[in-house]
Amino acid sequence: MFWGVFDGHAGWTTSAKLRQTLVSYVARELNATYQSALQDPKLTFPSSDAVDAAIKKGFVKLDNEITHESVQKVLKAQSKVVAAEILAPALSGSCALLSFYDSRSKELRVACTGDSRAVLGRRGSSGKWTATALSTDQTGGTASEDARLRAEHPGEPYVTMNGRILGGLEPSRAFGDAVYKWGKETQEKMKNQYFGRSPSKYLKTPPYVTAEPVVTTTKVQPEKGDFVVMATDGLWEMLTNEEVVGLVGSWLENQASKSTHDGGKASSSSATGWLQSWFSSQKAASLPIEHQKLGSKDDGQRAPIRQQQWGVPAGQDERFVVEDPNAATHLVRNALGGKDRDMLSALLTLPTPYSRRYRDDLTVQVIFFGEGESNGKVELNKEASATVANGAAEGIKAKL
């Protein structure tokens, strides 16, 4: 199973391309890897390193098509119309966060290119939840990324500047963003004959940005109520890892409490039955989370800059609210203000591009790993979906 979050910048075309094709590219490489393992009588399944390499190969292949093969197609076509269509995903950019779950081994792989983030929530022996980052933000300000870039481009003091690549782009890994990957000659040719931007004055030895992801592997424990939150940096600018996991924990408790108060009507369904075995109906006064020191080593997070911008004191759980039937919507609501409906409404009302000063785009997925029986069916939570009741395409209703 795959889940993906794609965060575009400088346009939407790259993220749209990833949404349409990245899973198929990775699946193709994984299929070849598993097929190759079957040919070896000593193997039943490919090695962990081979699976990681296949995922990375899928990412890099797609980016090569977007960024470099597009140039060859444009030069061959000699058409500005073709250039306008083909070069768009190369000139804009996108981060990508892709998860691959093997239900046989219960291993979850998270491939991260850019600064979107995945965090695991797991219920501990204390009854509270722990938050574990499954990815590390990849920016020019990340120590490991800064060191990598300086090693790859010795003698270039401006390879990262103010936490940005060549002083411009913040993510150090991304799809597209050809101005950080093309040589000067290619950039000048594309700009003069077709479409493009002027190269950075610091450009010397491209590429400075890569689409190759960092892949982590985690053993999922459904019996401990494991869930994963995947989200763009817009969420993590507003909430810490612990706050996000604690909010999902509160949401789960609320759902379990509702199913209990409904007289057990929902207890027979696989969607709620497994919740009741974990939670009592008593609601905690604060987030049910085991707090860790913010900024500790390998926690994968930066401090939420929007909390500082808005003057929101850290650690004040009373600002949060539980009222949405959808866990992802619940996180977005609390990121944008929670109980402060005035703040929530204001942040949603601000028009682009002015809104970018106060909030970034938010895309959130919450994945629950239950142990209920699988019937092979995909069921729509109508109450939590954006479409109107009964599946009629009569319009869209706001969920906040």
Would you identify the CATH architecture?
4-Layer Sandwich
Give the averaged pLDDT, no decimals. 87
Based on secondary structure, the structural category is: alpha+beta
Order of SSEs, N→C?
A: EHHHHEEEEHEEEHEEHHHHHHE
Low-confidence stretches: 266-284
Give me the CATH fold name.
Phosphatase 2c, domain 1
What's the tally of helices? 12
Query: Could you name the CATH homologous superfamily?
Result: PPM-type phosphatase domain
Distance between the termini: 29 Å
Quote the beta fraction. 5-15%
Q: Radius of gyration, Cα only, in angstroms?
A: 23 Å
CATH class: Alpha Beta
Helical proportion, percent range: 25-40%
What gross morphology would you assign?
Answer: globular
What does it look like?
It contains twelve helices and eleven strands. It is of the alpha+beta class and 400 residues long. It has a single domain (2-260, 278-368), classed as PPM-type phosphatase domain (Phosphatase 2c, domain 1, 4-Layer Sandwich), CATH 3.60.40.10. Strands 1, 2, 3, 8 and 9 form a five-stranded antiparallel sheet that branches. The protein is globular and about 70 Å long. It starts with a strand and ends in a 32-residue tail after the last strand. This is PPM-type phosphatase domain-containing protein. One of its GO terms (cellular component) is mitochondrion. GO terms for molecular function: [pyruvate dehydrogenase (acetyl-transferring)]-phosphatase activity. Pfam families: PP2C.
